[in-house]
Design goal:
alpha/beta, Rossmann fold, 2 domains, six-stranded parallel β-sheet, globular
């Protein structure tokens, strides 16, 4: 059986480091503060919000919430969002998306200060990922993938990596982050011909297509490390499952992350760490 790369081990290590960082800031009279900005009561938003609040409590950062009704007008939204965006006591803003159809999501992204964009959704933050600079913050899930590789000391430099998926949330950013660490990367997508022929030659496979159990044994090889980013509802099991057909693949690769219990919990840790980093940058001027 392959090595199971569990997320809780990575999350625990990150949490321990963050607790130390928060104590250092507290010694200077600074409390990192996150604003959760939510419109409506979507169940998936609420579930993620609970996870963020729990992790924030473990680390010791302050959480404020702005919750608007699902039928909020653009004018009301803009006024509330500007209020937290311009509040220097708030270091990071988590804006739940997608926004309701009556709201202009692109306008909100452009309004958000890059210094508070702890979820990596602004154009400037994404530009920072692609140019490998410290502008803003990378998308949290993409960074979470890198945290798994780093924690488990999986070599990246000189390795062949295949990424399935090209979204700006995970696929393209993580491909660039792998490239910045000197991997040779192929980014596969819906128009890619014969994806298994490509991925089966990779040392590292990142599955981020958002399709239940779409990555099967023929996508892999025995020396491969597989990171499953997919979060899909499996009606047959009545639970969450990944893009990887885990039971089929787990004995055919060197290492693999499970779903649940893999990248998801690390994503929340990365978000909280970005808040701390935003507070440190604000303190440094």
């Amino acid at each position: 059986m392959s090595r199971i790369l569990k997320g809780n081990e990575v999350a625990e290590a990150l949490t321990n480091q963050m607790q130390w960082d928060v104590r250092q800031l507290a010694a200077d009279g600074i409390t990192p503060t996150l604003c959760i900005f939510r419109v409506g009561e979507r169940p998936d938003d609420l579930a993620y919000e609970r996870g963020v609040e729990k992790r924030a409590g473990l680390v010791g950062i302050r959480v404020q919430k702005v919750v608007l009704p699902a039928d909020v007008t653009q004018e009301e939204f803009d006024k509330a969002f500007r209020g937290v965006n311009d509040d220097d006591s708030i270091h990071g803003i988590l804006l739940f998306r997608p926004l309701p159809k009556q709201l202009d999501e692109e306008k909100a992204r452009k309004m958000l200060r890059v210094s508070k964009d702890i979820d990596g959704c602004t154009d400037l933050s994404l530009a920072g990922v692609f140019t490998n600079t410290k502008t803003g913050f990378p998308p949290c899930t993409a960074q979470a993938v890198m945290e798994v590789l780093h924690h488990y000391e999986i070599p990246v430099s000189g390795k062949k990596a295949a990424v399935i998926g090209r979204s700006l949330v995970i696929g393209r950013p993580v491909a660039m982050m792998l490239m910045h660490e000197n991997a040779t990367v192929v980014n596969c997508h819906t128009r890619t011909v014969d994806v298994p022929q490509i991925t089966s030659k990779a040392d590292i496979l990142i599955a981020a297509a958002g399709r239940l159990h779409s990555v099967t044994r023929d996508y892999t090889n025995p020396e491969q490390v597989v990171i499953d980013v997919g979060i899909n509802w499996d009606e047959e099991k009545g639970s969450i499952s990944g893009d990887v057909a885990f039971d089929e693949v787990k004995d055919c690769v060197q290492a693999v992350t499970p779903v649940p219990g893999g990248v998801g919990g690390i994503t929340t840790c990365v978000l909280i760490r970005h808040v701390i980093e935003a507070a440190e940058k604000a303190a440094a001027g």
